[in-house]
User: Fold this.
Amino acid sequence: EAEQAPRCQGGGGEQGDMPRAAGRRARGEYQPLGNVKRFPDTLACVCLVFEMDEEESSPGGEVSVTQQIRQPLVDKLRAADLIVRETCSRDRDEMFVIVSASEKRQKQVAEVMGKRGLLALRLRQIDDEAHVEKNEGALCPFKAHLTPLYEWSSEGTLFSSYHQTQILEYILNDEDERVMGPQLVQKEMIEPGNTPLDQLVSDGRVKLFFRMHHESKRQELTRKWVWAWMDKQPIEDIREYFGEKIALYFAWLGYYTTMLWIPALCGLVLTVAQAWSHHTTGSMDNPWVPLYCCFTAIWGIVFTAGWKRLELAYQYEWDTKAYEETEQERKEFIQDPHTRQAHCEYKDEVELFPDPTWRSIALCVSAGAVCAFITAVVLVVSAIAMFKYRLMQVFEPMGIAPLAKGIGGVMQAVSIMVFNKIYQVVLKKLTAFENWRTPTEYEDATIAKDFSFKFVNAYFACFFVAFVQNNVRVYGADMHCPEWHCMPELTITLACVFAVQMTVVQSIEVGVPVLKARHREWAEENEMRRKLGENATIVPLSEEEKQSKMEPYDGVFEEYQEMVIQFGYVTLFAAAFPLTASLALLNNCIEIRTDAYKLLQATRRPKHKSCADIGTWGSILDIITTAAILTNCALVGFTSHGLFFYLPDLTPVERVWVTVMIEHALLLFKVILETILTEAPAEAVSAYERRCFLRDKVLAECEFLEPEDGDVAFFTDDDDD
Assistant:
């Protein structure tokens, strides 16, 4: 039988046997050690992945090139009083250097970070019965002398795994000389905008850097979040583990899904009414259609206004109201050749700004590209409509004309997905071309261009059937609906487009990251069997190797994009397919859990990101809500015949006036409701002010405990050399 694939580990002891300082081994004397224990569960880790060449992989070989690159960096990590473990991959082509820090080291670095406003913990809040009120204390910059007063994380440690990885990156990137970092790269060798870790990856000395999942917390979240279908989402735990940006997305998605129960139930009632109407009269028009259109428009208004209020409550709870004022410049902006410098007199420092001429040119190019894509969508949708019309003429004598409508609907759905995929690639290049300064500016510009195109791409097929097909000759052909009544065809188009996209997107979203990781493992195992023999025993992947093969998390942009487009399908064409809300509800109940699974099990742990709100997506929801008022009123007034159940003697002119009156009434309701609900909930403001008062009181009472000499450099190795 072939020999088992070797696995090596090395370096250091546990926290109680922490490496003491510089260079335990000379650079050519690295010997892998076996049976090294893992880090204790209280310590979070980051991982640096290095290449291993064949010389290093061969036992008894001389010092290899990859070893000469890696070992000085590992020695520097140990010299910076960090805990280091080294394990090699099962096929011995990669070395994983796992880095952590003792609690003592964490506290001393956190003290420096707290003084710069980079790390804050929540103070413990105790009620009248001496019980700790979880997550009720105010956030306070970390100060070591206040340690007994801080609330411990849900992971059972003072610093959560997020805070620990933040501390580790602060040390590794040498962001403050007081923390005695490892100085992995000389400052003069670092390109503008890069951190030392970025530079190591850019230079090729480090293959990959990633934050490792905290295993016990990951399993807890999997149990409480992924598989707990009937329970509320643990939003505070999500915020603690992933950050405010991801937590706010799931809070919004949970709120949206909860609100969907109302139109979903009403839509089911309307569907039954339409089925009965079709059975008795041969038409799906009935008195409930106009009411449901108006109700959906009102629901959209209440939904967006309610979210703004809830969003403000989260800002007070998480203390993120001033987040955007503290944003740093993007690395890509700093490194862009079209970024200019100017001296700011009142700040007495150099400030960066984009070249105005280049920005103007870039915006014009972006606008032209978006218009070109929109034109292409209009032409393709019209061509598919023409194909469907010709197909219906062929199928109608055979009595299967609805099949042609279904084929046309599926073609429209495929066209939408293809255009989305192509545009996504172009969109990234356009936004990078514009050279935005901060992450928020970059994201807002991306969202604006994305929605400008995808609003047309996603909904134009339905707009075409509802408002164009009866009134405009397309490619010289009159394609008006049978008996000039387009609601049945609109129903089939919307159902096909929505159902196909929902199924395909949901499958791709989770399936692709999982399949990519599985494919890497499968390819590696096949290569190992080729080298060692078919009967070789392949050892399982270590946790660090498994996580290194995962896909990086791309952020919440595409998640918001998918849900906001879905919100448009639910609200814009409510009466055409009332089951849209029910299908969206079913999809979202699955979406929450699959998104959670993807974050925890299928992708590497993302960088913790904060935010104050959902950004431009909130404005887009407002736009869709206003558009929903217009489209639903137009459906009631012009596409369906529902108004005639209430006003059977309407003339065409009176029909227009009634439609305009309904539309104006709904717009007025929207303005009034948004005016009422613009302020944060009084209880959230009151709780925030109470927390701040108690925090200031505690800080004032403990001020005498703070060491006077708090800025001296430190070193945590207490042992004598």
Notes: The longest helix spans residues 487-532. The two ends are 49 Å apart (CA to CA). The CA atoms of residues 107 and 144 lie 7 Å apart.
